[in-house]
Amino acid sequence: MNIHPFLWIRDTALKGTFLAAATLAIAAMLVLQSLGAPLQTPEAPAGIVSFELAGNLANSAAILASWDPAAKVSAGVNLGLDYLFIVAYVTAIGIACMLVSYHFKRNMRHWGMAGILLAWGILLAGVLDCVENYALISLLLGSQAEILPVVARFCAIPKFTLVFLGLIYVLIGSVASVLMSPGGRKSAA
Q1: CA-CA distances (angstroms) from residue 40 to 64, 65, 74?
Q2: Whole-model pTM over 0.70
Q3: Mean pLDDT over residues 98-115, rounded?
Q4: How far apart are CA 46 and CA 55, in angstroms?
Q5: Domain ranges of the chain
Q6: pLDDT for 184
């Protein structure tokens, strides 16, 4: 089964698309970190991540109250730019999972299949991230709906888990791929 979320990209273009998406993801991450610096307060020690994980209206309100007007503008810009980051990281990590899975589809089918499943999981992480951002933007704009912080947290935790699993798969799979290659075995011996 080779049905993955990147079938629309030719196999010959996967590596180039990965490199472009990874470069964009890293650049966006650096910009988001810069924008997120004023969001770190005692109520939000992890900045925007604290807001994502607040879990209830009281915690969200305390975080918002700890941000001055300039920090709230930073939070809004951060959440808006995060949509670009989502497209970039979903593409980069998803394709990386696919590229690693290609090395294992003959000898280690289960490990190769894990890459395909994780590529779909990363796509799900992107959808969860979009829903989370919508909830956070609504709170930032003054909504008092008690469900919004719950939705944000409910989306954030599996999103972080899926991204972490995808990155670990790519890291372990890349190292294993090098060690299992004919040149890798010689240098490892």
Answers
A1: 11, 12, 11
A2: yes
A3: 83
A4: 14
A5: 11-92+121-160
A6: 55
